[in-house]
Amino acid sequence: MAVAEQKERILPEFTMDHLGTSFKVILVNSVREIINEEGIKEILIPDQLGLSKAIALRRAIDSRKLSGGDIRFLRKSLSMKAKDLAEKLDISAEYLSRCEAGDKVMASNAEKVLRLIVLLEPFYMLEKAAEEVSADDRKFAERLLSSMSKISKVIHEMKIIPAHEIQEEFIYYFTRKKRGLKFDPANDDDGEWLAEAA
Fold it and tell me: pTM for this structure?
């Protein structure tokens, strides 16, 4: 009797539709589908934490109004409790909860602060790494400050587009590329998630 063979392939596109957000995420040439001997299908998405962070960063720079699901997604990508985020946004936990549920619309100022928190999170990690770098490495510090300045400018100049003015569905595409100089497709841990140009 022949033994059934496990089948594996890289999916050209995989739509993530379980995020509870106002947008879709499509992963390009990055997700493995494995069908085992019993015919059971398994989907493997590499570096899901990194993907969540990449999606959050992409959504934070998009000027379309955040939906309740978007706010919840961003909070979870920060690994923050609602009460802690509410405190940072200078709003009540109850109000944040209502915004996440879609019962209230978050004020633009609070929304900008949320976006800024999401955008600055990678710099907090870099800041910790910078403490271990020698004092002579001024280029690293200059790049860090330059990037933070650019992000601050994006948030400062952002005009939030009201949801009722948005006609088309919006979709973000992400692909996994190898780190370093080569940007070949990567579907393993040797890569990083990059948003494709809109």
Answer: 0.71
